[in-house]
Automatic annotation (TrEMBL):
Gene of this entry: jg19340
Classification lineage: Eukaryota, Metazoa, Ecdysozoa, Arthropoda, Hexapoda
Protein name: Cystathionine beta-synthase
PANTHER family, per database record: CYSTATHIONINE BETA-SYNTHASE
Assigned EC number: 4.2.1.22
PROSITE patterns: CBS, CYS_SYNTHASE
Catalytic activity: L-homocysteine + L-serine = L,L-cystathionine + H2O
Amino acid sequence: MENGATNGNSSEFFNLKEMPHIIRALDRNQKVHENILSVIGNTPLVKLTKIPKAEGIQCEMYAKCEFVNPGGSVKDRIAYRMVLEAERRGVLIPGKSVIVEPTSGNTGIGLALASAVRGYRCIIVLPEKMSDEKVNTLLALGAEIIRTPTEAASDSPEGNIMVAQRLSKEIPNAVLLDQYNNVCNPLAHYDGTAEEILWSLDDDVDMVVIGAGTCGTISGIAHKIKERCPKCIVVGVDPHGSILAQPEDLNASDVQMYEVEGIGYDFLPRTLDRKVIDTWIKTDDCGALQMSRRLIKEEGFLCGGSSGAAMWAATKAAKQLKAGQKCVVLLPDNIRNYMTKFISDQWLEARSFKPIPKNNELWWWNIPLLENIVPKTASLTINSSVSDAIAALRNSGSSVVTVLDNKGCLTGVFTADNTRKRLANIPGSSAEDLEKFVVKKIYKVDLANNPTLGAVSRILDIAPYVIVVNTESSQSIPKIIGAFTSDDLLLFVSGNQPTLSTNDSLSSKIQNGNVAYPGQKSSKASSDPVQPVQANSGITV
Ligand code: P1T
């Protein structure tokens, strides 16, 4: 028992006192915290090892681990700071005031945390893009949530900023702390985050790499670091599709959706000071999210997507530093927010950020999806009523009805599941227009890209149906083929066991483009040459 291993024959408890002990140095400053808000900040600075080595970086790299904050992100700092200041000025009164804030979620979680502890009603206005994990955390903290369309511009009355402004005027005792204009946002980092980084590295930092949203983090840290360590290069990280970076991204006017949450905007917040930012690096989803997965797997940092964007940019920027110099990259939030998003391999594959896994065991895995096994769906226009949509769903016998906009393009789907959810959980929703019932986050495959049944099966791991379209024809509007479910895949697979002697001969015929599905009865299938599988998964989301 000397090595601490269990003795299979003994039922006695261990002699703990006699074991070899590892006692970590204790933080002697704080024995007990008054409440969870006083745990915010003082986050660890941790050396990065494997990724810098793999990327051929000479300098030392450190991660500022903001994901360990109690609410899970760097934004806890500013939320608490804005609340404290508003209370000090008498603007916020516990038990009376209502906090209303537009946010990509993390500031909302920080405010909901502060509201739970200090006694405020809290209303969070959040774009649809943001993860359900953030929504569930907010709800658990007692916040109320209003969702706004992701595509709405920041100055549109439908967008989260304008909706929050309107609500703050309509709701009695509402207070909009306004992270985009509130000095406490950069100040929390000037006084806190930057001081911590400087203390950890004895005021000797050569580069900081920080993602830009409201830009409070980067502007606040940069101001303090430039005062105390003027040599430090400040690198801002901004996704393609945002206009924060300088020089401006020429393509930013083409509205470009990106998946990474929390960074990038279509306006310049007052909390951005471009003067203190030396260089900007633009990032894309694929590089950012793959890097987040590497931070988790190779370094053990359970962080989110904007952490990957910052780290991806840092691996480029830090190449200019020499051995012995120090680069700090800030990792803003934690993995919890993204469990059903980029933490899922299938989610990454559906967006072509990761290849579809091979599967040589299943005869059908590499076979392309053909039109004739996809059940047709009924279509409705967006101007139809909800009762029309319910009737269409019932009459079609399908689980999905496709909904077209006024130009005839697919705008989303109407499903029994979502309709029930809305009617059951949102008071007054029975009087709403069809628009409100339309599910816009859908997985689509385009037959023009020859998606394989394997690729479709991977999507069906994370979605109840896949909408099948075909953009091959010369028409500008993609043709809607139908909706494909696990039932349809199993029906096809079980009714079409290959009669060919080996899987190899089947797949070689597929590669030669001269085989239709085994057992296929439709004439369409035999006239449709099967294309070799391509690298592109053919899936859009
Ligand atoms: O807002 P800023 O200090 O620039 O931090 C950018 C940022 C980076 N990463 C994540 C995951 C974030 O949530 C943010 C900013 N978040 C908000 C603006 C918000 O409302 O949560």
